[in-house]
Amino acid sequence: MTSVNPQPINSASDISYEMVCHFLYREARLLDQRKFTEWDNLFAEQGMYWIPLIEDQPDPINHLSLAYEDSMMRQVRINRLNHNRAWSQKPRSRTSHMVSAIVIEKICDETNRLVVGSAFQMAEWRSFGLRTFAGLYTHTLVVSDGHLKIGEKRVDLIDSGEAFEPIEVFI
Amino acid sequence: MDIDRLIKKDEVHRDVYVSEEVFGLEMDRIFGSAWIYVGHDSQIPNPGDYWTTRIGLQSVVMTRGKRDEINIFYNRCPHKGARIAEEGCGHTNGLFRCPFSTFNLDGKLRGVPYLDGYQDTSFDLTDPRFSLRKVARVAAYRGFVFASLAEDGAEFEDFLAGVKSSLDNFCDRAPEGTVSVAGGVFRVVQRSNWKIFFENLNDTGHPIATHESSYRAARQYSEEVLDGELPFELHIIDGNGAPPKFWSDLDLHAFDYGHSYMTAIFNAPDDPLSQQYFASLAAKVGGDRAEEILAVNRHNTIIYPSCSPHTSFQQWRVIRPLSVDRTLVEIFTFRLDGAPDELLQRTFTYSNVVNSPSSIVMTDDVHVYAECQKGLSTQGGDWVSQHRNAGQDQPYSGSEGGLIGVGTSELPIRNQFRAWHEYMSEGSGQSVSPEAS
Questions:
Q1: What is the reported pLDDT for B431?
Q2: In sequence order, which residues have a C-beta less than 8 Å from that of residue A82 and are 6 or more positions away?
Q3: Which residue from B189, B348, B360 is facing A163, i.e. has the nearest CB?
Q4: Does the N-terminal or the C-terminal CB of chain A have fewer CB atoms within 10 Å?
């Protein structure tokens, strides 16, 4: 997919609202197209994917999380999703993300970081039917080597404390 | 219902998994009489704290009273029937209040609005039937609180005997000798009968096939990126792909009342954190005792029919039937009191990988349970096999007694159904002595 912005990005203040929106939409679309490796490449080297277990969870280290995955654990999840003996992926999950209410909450030029909030819904079809996840995303985006990358993707589900059937794909 | 027709020595009839009538009887005869895990006393550290959960299909509230005692009530206002506490943990300032009545922490009715209106009726503030109903029996061992809804039945200590050593080891691993619930609770819904999950907990036949996608995924990453190295997270995923001999070399121990445990399938890494933890334990109990404690290394212990502690990584799974084909599993993690914080962090890491609803390991299990439930609902066959190594289990010579089988035996499953049969046979006693078949 071609970038909306052919010019290299030098600092956080070079980033327009439109670029942020496009980045988030593109991220969601890669997930819905099951282009997981391309999606994973959006993350910075130390980037983390985090689904807290409780509302306002302060940190992922001193508490359980629904998911807290670095590059290694994301890639292992992707390897599994692509494995032909992933029994529970027969038939495979299909998803549709809606991302909206995108707000740039913070821009820090010194660290070249932006904090972006948004609301989302993800519909997922599995062998047991259609289900919906809803919540708030908080993306910490970093400028790295002229590109926008994900430093952290935080997924706060509105029902994070509920009992779930297994969650296999990235939300 | 003729229960005997459902059970053979090494097979069970599919009705035990799919019949609504059997499920109803289980709620009455098993969950209505056995000692069921309710919670841990660290969840209610102060008077007025409460924890609302279920025993079978009954909503119950475990609370700490003013004299530090633990009470367990049915979660039902005796007046109009409203529940007095919502699910989960909470605190009340000395009184439970529903929209209709108020109760003391020990369950006594304290007040109702417009008391004048009850004059010359059979209503009596002091009559126990207008106070919260307590469950019949409550008992605790090292902080783990169990309850029985039946007045009569096995004594708690007799019930627990075979697997008491697992609870001891769970707590002895803490430098202070006590553990505390920490880090929240995972809750997973399975579309399958509760017994299917229990059967899986000590089953070593399934990992190499069921978990192929996850251990291959971990190995692929390890080979492609890490030159074959297996960090902790990958190590615990990789273990499921161990060769057959590894599994058959494990020991399975089975005890009265359907309990069992299996020996460990992987060890904690020998890293600086493990050494730091060992030092914290040895400082309290001495080096020899610390080694003795850590030498007891077990994978899942089963305390039938309600819970399963994992002693070496401080996990505690609670199995709560919802209906004949729905089961809720709750996963608690514990702090070893006095151990380094980083050890608790490793416990969380383990649980995130293995027990989270988003675990890449568990998802295949849950799928297979649901497939079993669907298949068992067909007329494709009435009997379910439990034959593996039947007739080969041996009495265990150690002080704990019970039976011992090779790691790939279905001994724990047959043992669960012996207890099941005993509970379900109306009028029978609670003595469930497994005999070498």
A1: 45
A2: A36
A3: B189
A4: N
Say how far apart CA B112 and CA B128 lie, in whole Å: 15
DSSP string, B126-139: T-GGGSPPBPSEEE
Which one is the CATH code of B161-424: 3.40.50.1240, 3.90.380.10, 2.60.120.10, 3.30.565.10?
3.90.380.10
Beta-carbon contacts of residue B7 (< 8 Å; ≥ 6 apart): B13, B16, B417, B420, B421
Tens of each residue's pLDDT in chain B, 437 residues? 899 999 999 999 999 999 999 999 999 999 999 999 999 999 999 999 999 999 999 999 999 999 999 999 999 988 888 999 998 999 998 888 887 788 887 888 888 888 889 899 998 888 888 899 999 999 999 999 999 999 999 999 999 999 999 999 999 999 999 999 999 999 999 999 999 999 999 999 999 999 999 999 999 999 999 999 999 999 999 999 999 999 999 999 999 999 999 998 877 888 999 999 999 999 999 999 999 999 999 999 999 999 999 999 999 999 999 999 999 999 999 999 999 999 999 999 999 999 999 999 999 999 999 999 999 999 999 999 999 999 999 998 888 889 999 999 999 999 999 999 999 997 444 444 444 33
Task: Report how far residue B60's alpha carbon sits from residue B299's, in angstroms, rounded to the nearest whole number.
Answer: 30
How many of the other CB atoms lie within 10 Å of CB of B114? Answer: 6
**Closest approach of chain A CAs to the CA of B363, in angstroms?**
6
H or E, element range at B373: helix B362-376
Q: Is A25 on the interface with B (CB under 8 A)?
A: no
B interface mutation test: which of A56, A62, A88 has the most B CBs within 10 A?
A: A88
- Looking at chain B, which residue has its C-alpha nearest residue A78? B217
Would an 8 Å CB–CB cutoff place A88 in contact with chain B?
yes
Domain boundaries, chain B: 36-141, 161-424
**Amino acid letter, B387:** H
Please give the pLDDT value at position B378. Answer: 97
Q: Which residues on A lie below 8 Å from B187 (Cβ)?
A: 161-164
Residue type, B106: D
Note whether B357 contacts A166, CB cutoff 8 Å: yes
Domains of chain A: 12-82+92-157 (3.10.450.50)
Q: Report d(CA B372, CA B366) in Å as an integer.
A: 10
Nearest chain A Cα to B355, which residue? A66
Q: Which chain B residues are Cβ-neighbours of A76 within 8 angstroms?
A: 214, 217-218, 220-221, 234, 237, 360
Give me the amino acid identity at B78: P
* CATH fold of B36-141: Rieske Iron-sulfur Protein (2.102.10)
- ipTM of the assembly? 0.94
Report angle CA B161, B166, B172 to the nearest 5 degrees.
120
